[in-house]
Amino acid sequence: MLDRRQVRERAHGLTALILGLFLLGVGASLGISKTAADLLSGMLSIPEYPAVLLRETIRDWLSWGRSRSAIQAEIEALRGENAELRVLNATLANERIRVELSALEARKDVARITLRAPMSWWNEIRIDKGEGDGVIVGLPVFHNGYLAGRISSVSLLSSWVELLTSPSLMIPVVVEETRELGVVMGNGSGSVFLNYIPAGRGSMKGMKVSTALIGEQLPPGLPIGVIAEELETTPDGYATYRIAPGADFSKLYSVSLLVGPEGASR
């Protein structure tokens, strides 16, 4: 007969054996479940891959789109500020030029034309102001308030003026509405043209043309005339325009030129 102690030990052992077998079975089944789950996950990842890729692509595009929108908004803001600065600078420049032109207007003196030779009718004229009146080479000459030419040579009592209609006089100019830079020159037959404007600028008819701030011979902002029409485009990509000058070169009897503070031309 077994005593109570032996019975208790055998009961504990049997219980441990049963528990061990149970855990062994559960562990084995759990391993199988994991293997099956891994296998099933691998199989499902194949049809799932396009959806995952699409999700990642959409997320990247949305992130890029938000960044691009922010950059575009910043660019637009900078463009607006730049446009405002250009308007402000143009306003200040126009105001400065207006003040300078008012000062120049107050210094104009009238000179009478004493000679206009038929052979050089559209190229030059002689006026009755010379060194004795303080005239120097390079002074601008006006007619009807518009630039008509420039002093080309000076003697004691008279001076010669090269007209805008002369093919040898080239004046750097600016189109006031677009700030395009070009060169005005004549053809020797009474016409004036605007050259070296990049082609493709569209209609510029009626836009004002004035002297540009290039060089030191003529002050900027002196009015010349308006653009009448576009004539042609050169092979190198520049357009030529005909200018309607403010000066009436067919009816020149007298012109104006600048004079100094005490009545002497500069």
Automatic annotation (TrEMBL):
This protein's UniProt keywords: Cell shape, Coiled coil
GO BP: any one term: regulation of cell shape
Coiled-coil annotated spans: 68-95
UniProt key word Coiled coil: yes
Rod shape-determining protein MreC beta-barrel core domain: residues covered: 115-258
Keyword Coiled coil in annotation: yes
A cellular component term, taken from the record's GO annotations: plasma membrane
PANTHER family on file: CELL SHAPE-DETERMINING PROTEIN MREC (PTHR34138)
Family affiliation: Belongs to the MreC family.
Protein name (record): Cell shape-determining protein MreC
Protein species of origin: Fretibacterium fastidiosum
